[in-house]
Amino acid sequence: MQHALSELYALRQGRVLTHAAYAEIGGVAGALTKRAEALFNELAPAGQETARRLLLALVSPGQANEDTRRRMRQTDLRAAGPPVLVEQFLDSFGRARLLTFDRDPLTREPTVEVAHEALLRTWPRLRGWLDASRTRLQIHRRLNSAAAEWLATERDDGFLASGGPLAQFEVLGSDEEIWLSAIEQDYLAASLART
Q1: Which of 43, 114, 132, 138 is least enclosed, having the fewest CB within 10 Å?
Q2: DSSP string, 20-83
Q3: Pairing between β-strand 99-103 and β-strand 72-73 as defined by DSSP bridges
């Protein structure tokens, strides 16, 4: 709503917000979609690929339910692509209020997430990416959970992957469309070394 109001305010006639301006921006969902698409189109091809990877990292794909935003540590997200391109994405999408920045309540580390879940449902480009990558993203989120649990148990070998899950995780390790964090890479390497 805040984003739509900002867009609507920019199109005001004097001090009046009009229904015509609201229709022009496409309402709340339309304003988000148009802004995201415009920002994406301003990026060079390498920046667009980085934006795609980062946006996919910021979504938890649903199975029987809808996709939801995923909060990530900024340090993890910054490692997902060339630093200049990651900063460009964070800056442009952040200034447009399509991303929000906060701190983890426990660690106080800076975090980032998609500001509006409506964007996950209404931006056709992002919907297409999510639909095309859904299975891989779901496997990646399982890898992320397993690696976090392994780390929480001080890297106990009993928490390493094996069998079918390990085979799925190994495929992700060579998938250039899915970015693995340092802890996920360590977990995968330790699991593979144990077999």
Answers
A1: 132
A2: HHHHHHTHHHHHHHHHHHHHHHHS-HHHHHHHHHHHHHTEE--SSS--EE--EEHHHHHTTS-H
A3: unpaired
What are the structure tokens assigned to 11, written together? 């199109």
Residue 148 near residue 182 (C-beta atoms within 8 A) = no
Q: Round to whole Å and give the CA distance between 191 and 195.
A: 7
Other CB atoms within 10 Å distance of the CB of residue 23: 10
C-alpha distances (whole Å) from 98 to each of 35, 56, 60, 168 are 9, 14, 17, 32
This prediction has a pTM of 0.81
> With the C-alpha atoms ordered 112, 118, 121, 123, is the resulting torsion angle positive or negative?
negative
Q: What is the DSSP letter of 16?
A: B
CA 69 – CA 29 distance, rounded (Å): 16
Extract the tokens encoding 114.
């998609």
Q: What is the DSSP string of 142-195?
A: HHHHHHHHHHHTTS-GGGS--HHHHHHHHHHHT-TTSPPPHHHHHHHHHHHHH-
